[in-house]
Amino acid sequence: MNINQDQLLIFKTVIETGSFSAAARKLGKVPSAVSMSIANLEIDLNLQLFQRVGREPIPTEEAMVLFEKTDQLLVEMKQWKQHAFALSTGLESSLNIVVVSELLHTNWTDYISIIETKFPQLQINIFSAPQEDAQKMLLNGTAQLALMFEREHLEGNEQFVELKREVLVPVSSKNFELAKFDHVSFEQILQSRQIVVASRDKSIKPELLYSKSYWRTDNHHSACSIILQNLAWGVLPLEMFNENPELKHQLKILNFSDFTPKFEYFVDLVWSRESQLGAAARFLINHIRNERKKPNLTEQN
User: Fold this and answer.
1) Matching InterPro entries, A to Z (predicted)?
2) In the CATH scheme, what is the code of domain 5-89?
């Protein structure tokens, strides 16, 4: 059986227009070409598709059953061809993106939408992980792109472009011991249990760790739940308060009196210099770079 896209399109058009001649006019073909295509399709399928009685062909029951499937099949064939062409011009077969756990509440899906608009057939896989694990996935090739916080020390094979700023805040439940104080000393922080978002690899020391006693989790939603249970204090994204306004009534932002920790970070799109990036990854990187070159409208006004 050798059925091609052109045959299916002619078959569909004949049924929609009601005649071989009308289908020929719509498709820009001669009627004999349309008639021959239908005859060949009937031979390939071993089915009679039209009764040729009178002036116009009448679709058989079998033809109408197949007609219901034709539209979707034509769409899939077109998508298949588009995807094959994209792959031939350098599009990756799939794109793996890892988003650092604390950034899941941000508008990271906007970047996915940008890729989907340009490459609708691309398979995109999204993972979330703590910062250290996201970096590992990037460097071992499990992910091609990572949305993560800026790092004090870059790996030699890392490359990045800045996306935005993100603010983290130290918080506790309003019933927690530290919440009783307007200002919290370093000694008090040291002696109070902290919940930290950290790598699943326990050999890696957590970032933003201040307390002697601490628990670990791999995402900020779990950390928030533990903090709300009055079990520990921790550092959460400030944006969580906008995402869930009820938290403003349940959590207190702690003021550190003895030092000012750095809780404001740039968020970067990161990739490895050693990876052979495909067309979609390169497109997103260039899109962000071009956006950064545009004048800041708030500064102009």
Assistant:
1) LysR_HTH_N, LysR_subst-bd, WH-like_DNA-bd_sf, WH_DNA-bd_sf
2) 1.10.10.10
